[in-house]
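Hi team,

Below is the intake form for Helix-turn-helix transcriptional regulator from Sinorhizobium mexicanum. Please confirm the fields before the structure is written into the shared record.

FORM ID: S-0412
PROTEIN: Helix-turn-helix transcriptional regulator
ORGANISM: Sinorhizobium mexicanum
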Amino acid sequence: MGTMDVASARLSECLVAARACLHIERGDLPTIIYGLTGSGMIIIEGEAAIELVPHMLVVAPANKSIDIVAAGSSFGCSRSGAGSIKKSTFAPGSVHRCAIGEGEAALSLVCGCFHAVYGPGLDLFASLASPVVETFDAYDQLDQVMSYAMVELAAREIGGGPMASALFKLVLLTLLRRSLTSANTWVEHLSLLNDPPIARAFAEMASCPAAEFSVQTLCRSVGLSRSAFMARFTAAFGESPMSVLRRLRMRHAAGLLAANAASIDQVALHAGYQSRSSFTRTFRKHYGTDPSDYRSEAKRVLVACDIEADGAPSDEPPAALKVG
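The structure came back. Fields below:
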């Protein structure tokens, strides 16, 4: 768990009135929802409705729309129409606090999107297929941690982003601790964390992707037979060790290219490839573009994102650059 990090987090407090519907459109990042007061329903695209109560934490997979209504409201969210609930589309993290609907709030919650990684190369929730649903207690103090993180994000002071990410990391660590004892099916997604030898093998590859790893050397380093290692690694990642290593190397190479830190020949060596042509073929297959073109696009995007319309530096990462 110590190698988990939060690369980005955007959070908002949402107040939902009766007969109002908070709608979140599909996005590239998972959505986290934490109930503060009141109760209601969360309807995630393609999933059964989830009853939201105080101290419940829900992580919805990326690329799924979400509707949230207060208790007592029907599920019929629409943009107009007599007797229907008015739907208001909201982008998590776009504002510090938002009020949905008219009148007193019947439900309050924290809503956000995030990017969490294990080591430098594994997106912990990228392959999440079904929602994570866990209910905590007041003494877990997740509501206070969430509030502190939102304050840091809203203040926009120097270091606010890293501070908010560190606070949000506490929330995810609490969730991951729960995964060690929870009987809910979502914990199977994080089976890597329950298998220390496999986690150690991954950490070795992630820390030095250019090293000459093989299944044999990895087996030996973690003390497992080849058959046991392959079965457990594939169960944790859904792919072979060499396939994961290739992804780690490409991610590392993409970072070097984006930073313009070395020549393409040097990047290839840093990614574990002695042949530039072999590196280029693998990179093109992974990212759909040549390394030189990727570097050019990275430079263009970074220059564009560094200056906002008013000339002020932007503290948002370039959305068009995706590594991994």
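SUMMARY LINE: The first strand starts at residue 4 and ends at 17.

Thanks, M.
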